[in-house]
């Protein structure tokens, strides 16, 4: 796997990372041994960039990576995220059906200490503010992250799902290495809200999460019958009723383009995000799909293929919001 520089602060990562969230939450039950095997195989194939967060589980995903990479810390680049609040018994804090987002400096510092402990490491390579707290000035939060960098507990920092204006304010306090936001043929909002333009202007890297549209772009999903009862996609607006059928038709068009060059739609989708100059972090729990995803790094899309994909999946093509209304309110601050 090719290694690339993410942003302009010196962090080097594999050109494709691995999103680890689904190993511990959101997509139904998983098997720890299978997860560990997939993480080990990723490392064998040259993936060095692994993405987690304290909220994944909560906490269990960081513990999984700590276990997987014990004794291998020098071989991996660990990215984690803080910024959601938890109750005393370790559950995600909710108010009026919405998760509580916090950027308070004291909370961020305590959260980072917890992440370090669970990951079994003395430092975090890339620490993101998971969501932007509209009640805490971004300058205060980034100031706290900058102090953690000076203390050596964090190497580089970033933000997730932030507006262009917030990215500029944050970067002025301490250079951001990366911005992480959903980006795929299914979700191209960053192309028209000035986020991509801003990070390119400022020399900030871009990490694409959900590059497969939460599984839509795998081409494997035809209905919800195969999903676990606790799989959040059963409640995701894009997977509901008429939205589901419209979005499956979009996938059919991408599948046709992929078939013309003997590739899977998932591989074309990942290659498309890489062609856009981003580092995608597709998630999977299974070695089979991991190997398919990694093979996408070798696909060079032609100008005709790029034009065909742009026609098949233009900006705004997906039907339905990308999150529930409560989660939508946490985006874009």
From TrEMBL:
Protein name from the UniProt record: Aldo/keto reductase
Originating species: Rhizobium lusitanum
Stretches that traverse the bilayer: none
InterPro entries from the UniProt entry: Aldo-Keto_reductase, NAD(P)_OxRdtase_dom_sf, NADP_OxRdtase_dom
Record has Oxidoreductase as a keyword: yes
Pfam families found in the cross-reference section: Aldo_ket_red (PF00248)
A Gene Ontology molecular function term of the record: oxidoreductase activity
CDD domains referenced in this protein's UniProt entry, alphabetically: AKR_AKR13A_13D (cd19076)
Domain NADP-dependent oxidoreductase: 17-312
Keywords assigned: Oxidoreductase
A cellular component annotation (GO) from this entry: cytoplasm
């Amino acid at each position: 796997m090719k290694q690339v520089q993410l942003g302009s602060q010196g962090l080097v990562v594999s050109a494709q990372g691995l999103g680890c969230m689904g190993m511990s939450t959101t997509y139904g039950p998983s098997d720890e041994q299978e997860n560990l095997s997939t993480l080990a195989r990723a490392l064998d194939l040259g993936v060095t960039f692994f993405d987690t967060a304290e909220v994944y589980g909560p906490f269990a995903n960081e513990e999984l990576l700590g276990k997987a990479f014990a004794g291998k810390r020098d071989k991996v680049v660990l990215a984690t995220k803080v910024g959601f609040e938890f109750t005393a018994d370790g559950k995600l804090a909710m108010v009026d059906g919405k998760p509580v987002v916090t950027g308070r400096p004291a909370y961020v510092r305590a959260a980072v200490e917890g992440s370090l402990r669970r990951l079994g490491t003395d430092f975090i390579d890339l620490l993101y503010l998971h969501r932007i707290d509209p009640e805490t000035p971004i300058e205060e939060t980034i100031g706290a992250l900058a102090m953690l960098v000076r203390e050596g507990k964090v190497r580089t920092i970033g933000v997730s799902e932030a507006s262009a204006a917030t990215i500029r304010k944050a970067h002025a306090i301490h250079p951001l290495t990366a911005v992480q936001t959903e980006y795929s043929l299914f979700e191209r909002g960053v192309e028209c809200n000035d986020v991509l333009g801003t990070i390119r202007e400022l020399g900030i890297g871009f990490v694409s999460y959900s590059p497969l549209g939460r599984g839509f772009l795998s081409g494997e999903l035809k209905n919800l019958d195969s999903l676990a009862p606790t799989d959040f996609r059963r409640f995701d607006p894009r997977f509901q009723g008429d939205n589901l059928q419209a979005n499956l038709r979009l996938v059919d068009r991408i599948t046709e383009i992929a078939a013309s060059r003997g590739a899977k739609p998932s591989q074309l989708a990942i290659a498309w995000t890489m062609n856009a100059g981003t580092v995608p972090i597709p998630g999977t729990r299974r070695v089979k799909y991991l190997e398919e995803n990694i093979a996408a790094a070798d696909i060079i899309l032609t100008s005709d293929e790029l034009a065909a994909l742009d026609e098949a999946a233009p900006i705004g093509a997906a039907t339905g919001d990308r999150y529930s209304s409560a989660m939508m309110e946490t985006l874009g601050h």
